[in-house]
Amino acid sequence: LETVYSRDALKSDIAGTTITPFYGNDGSLTGSAGCNHYFASYNMTGTLLSVSSVGSTKMYCTSPGVMQQESTFLASLNRAAAFTITGNRLSLAEANGTTLLSFTKDA
Q: Rounded distance, CA 3 to CA 28, Å?
């Protein structure tokens, strides 16, 4: 999956970074946050989603904006309460329905 959007000014991946989610069947969520690898637990019931225990490795990236992008992404992921899948797009939303993140599947 590629391309991340967030209402917190994260419009797309900064050049040279990739943000990815990998949902495991065991309730684990892992991926790249653009600089560091992250990990979390998730639970899905219908279209409801809860994400907890979000953590990441602690490398520091010096490219402008990368650490802010990562911080915004992880905070948004932590607020996710629902998901939808439409075509090749996975969207995560807050409990009030506001879209936090959208991922488009690579071709």
A: 21
pTM recorded for the entire structure: 0.81
**Residue 6 burial (C-beta neighbours within 10 Å; 0-12, 13-18, 19+):** buried
The pLDDT tens digits for 58-82 are: 998 888 889 998 998 999 999 999 9
Inter-residue contact 34 to 17 (CB < 8 Å)? yes
Contacts of 104 (CB under 8 A, 6+ apart): 1, 2, 3, 88, 89
Q: How far is residue 3 CA from its own chain's centroid? A: 10
Dig out the tokens for 101 from the structure. 């993140």
